[in-house]
Amino acid sequence: MNNASKAGGDPRIMIGPTANTEQCKANPRSAAPAFFGIFALTVACFALLCAPATSWAKSTQDLIVEQAAGQDVTLNEREAAVLRRTLPIIGRRYLHKLDPTPLLKETMEGLKEYDAAVASMEKAAKKDTAKGAAAHGEKAQKRRKPSEFRRIALALNKGLNTLDAHSAYLDPESYGELKIRISGKFAGLGLEVTMDDGLVKVIAPIDDTPAQRAGMRAGDLISHVDGTPIKGMTLRAAVGRMRGLVGTTIRLTVLRGEAKEPMEMLIVRDIIRVPAVRHKVASDYGYIRISAFSQRTEPGLRKAMAKIDDALGAASLGLVIDLRNNPGGLLRQAIRVSDVFLDEGVIVSVRGRMEEDNALFRAKGGDLAVGKTVVVLVNEGTASAAEIVAGALKENHRAVIVGSRSFGKGSVQTIFSMGESGALRLTTALYYTPSGRTIQAWGILPDLLIESDRQEAGRREEELQGALSRGEASPHIVGPSATITGDRCNELLAKPMDDKNLACAVALLRAGGLDRLEHLASSLANDGGKAAHRQQHRQ
User: DSSP secondary structure string, 400-444?
Assistant: First the structure.
């Protein structure tokens, strides 16, 4: 049997560790988020990958030969073997039934484009040789020999772009890097990124990493790396330039929405270690930040809750669970985190084309925060596994969701290992909330929408190139229960907070619920602040 991993990752690549899987980890596509995704384990039938004698395999070979001949493309045996393995998997396991011909045609176009680019480079190299053979010789020695899978990897990923934003072929090098990231320890900047109109877009800086400390923000666009333009690079190539040795400095040219001119940012690469859970104890509430869903998340959450209980006891008004800019992670961990706050009820369901892709997960662990109010903070960077948790707690009426609509990454990717040929990450199913509503492209709406003067950073799932549609899913029946501004929330607190979204979560806890917060905010608007003054004295 060959191992396969399910992933509901984010349409993005991480410059920093992605969430771990039990056996292997699925990062978002090398040319697109991952989005940082959700992972579980499944098994792919060996015959699916290695059955050249079947009629399906024969028809695949015929199709490859036909398309290659039709576009005058030559494939070596290794490249043809990759296609012979990937096409049957796609045909049998993709989310929807499809005709592989358009994908294969686009792949052949990608091969032709690659060959044309190589020919152009060789022509330019000959000109350089004519100008100065010695200088050209030095450059040639420094030039890294491309991987033998590079040509088919770039071309096949061009073809997979016709399916959706997250399916991708991982050549052996990429697959090896994915496994390295399981350790959660390597040199980088600490950014999660995707491609946006030819530039690298920051989905979110990872907590306590060089990128975050340097001031990088969600929505920033990186146009140059050490003076080299990003335009024309694949995401993988751009990410490769941003990685390097520990202690070395990189210069990024950053475009930020409100800034008129590009900014130059110097960042020193470091080992990226991302704690899944952090917490702090305030005078009357506990704050828990979940930055990703790795194998350490649920145990870390339980430890954090125990420490908060020890510190506050009966004085605790409740918990703030911060899922902002959380790109996702392990499916099993999302289920376990949700279960920490639930006695019963559905957490999430998974529905795919194959029976083996369907599953329904229910709560069974018992609510560890029984009797306490739980507020969950979300924003446009809250994706995948984080959206599962927010949706489960909202629809089971266990938490008040505060912030803005989440990212909307609701698809499942399964990783099919192909031995020495690398791996295929393929979209095989969708996630649904307890009420049966799809997360895909809709996201999770907050109960309390925090209005903001600034433009929301970055794009959501439905705006990504090649994103899966919302399909037949119905829209949200109702919008947020209430809206408020961060400034108004701060007026309700004795001590204003720089983090205005957190201020709203704390104001809600101290008000005693969403209805009470709405009443206080309305009173504040009507009596010029006297109600807020009285509330502050009670805090």
Answer: EEEES------EEEEEEE-GGG-EEEEEEEEEE-TTS-B-TTT--
pLDDT at 468 over 60: yes
Find all residues with CB under 8 Å of 176, minimum gap 6, and list them: none
The pLDDT of residue 18 is above 70: no
Rounded distance, CA 514 to CA 2, Å? 50
Residue 126: which region, alpha, beta or left (left: phi > 0; alpha: psi -120 to 50)? alpha
Q: Provide the token pair at 290.
A: 């979940």
Q: CB of 67 within 8 A of CB of 101? A: yes
> What residues contact residue 71 under an 8 Å CB cut-off, 6+ apart?
105, 108, 109, 112
Helix 77-93 to helix 55-70 angle (10° resolution) is 120
The per-type count for the chain, helices as H runs and strands as E runs, is 16, 23
Q: Which residues contact 65 (CB under 8 A, 6 or more apart)?
A: none
d(CA 386, CA 382): 6
Q: Which helix (H) or strand (E) holds 6?
A: strand 2-7
In 464-534, at which residue ranges do the beta strands (DSSP E only) sit? 482-485
What are the structure tokens assigned to 195, written together?
Answer: 């491609």
Query: What is the pLDDT averaged over residues 410-435?
Result: 92
User: Which residue is listed with tokens 């890294």?
Assistant: 144
* CA 217/CA 223 separation, integer angstroms: 15
Number of Cβ within a 10 Å radius of residue 422: 24
CA distance 196 to 388: 25
CA 458 – CA 127 distance, rounded (Å): 42
Least confidently predicted of 137-151, 209-223, 375-389, 504-518: 137-151
Six-digit token string for 161? 């772009």
Residue 373 has pLDDT above 70, yes or no: yes
Report how far residue 204's alpha carbon sits from residue 212's, in angstroms, rounded to the nearest whole number: 9
- Residue 311 and residue 321 in contact, taking contact as beta carbons nearer than 8 Å: no
Dihedral-angle region of residue 264 (phi above 0 means left; psi in -120 to 50 means alpha; beta otherwise): beta
Q: What percent of the chain has pLDDT over 90?
A: 57
Each residue of 140-154: b (16+ CB within 10 Å) or e? eeeeeeeeebebbbb
Distance of CA 380 to the CA centre of its chain: 11
- Position with higher pLDDT, 512 vs 26: 512
**Residue found by looking up tokens 């390597």 in the block:** 186
DSSP state of 206: P
Q: Identify whether the C-beta of residue 410 lies closer than 8 Å to the C-beta of residue 466.
A: no
* Cα–Cα nearest to 158, from 168, 149, 144: 168
User: What pLDDT shows up at residue 236?
Assistant: 80
Mean of pLDDT values over 327-345: 94
Q: Which of 407, 412, 378 is nearest to 394 (CA)?
A: 378
The answer for residues whose C-beta is within 8 angstroms of residue 389's C-beta and 6 or more apart is 323, 334, 337, 338, 376
Identify the band that residue 208 occupies on the pLDDT scale cut at 50, 70 and 90: confident
Using an 8 Å Cβ cutoff, are 189 and 254 in contact?
Answer: no
Residue 535 three-state SS: helix
Please say whether the beta carbons of 167 and 107 come within 8 A: no
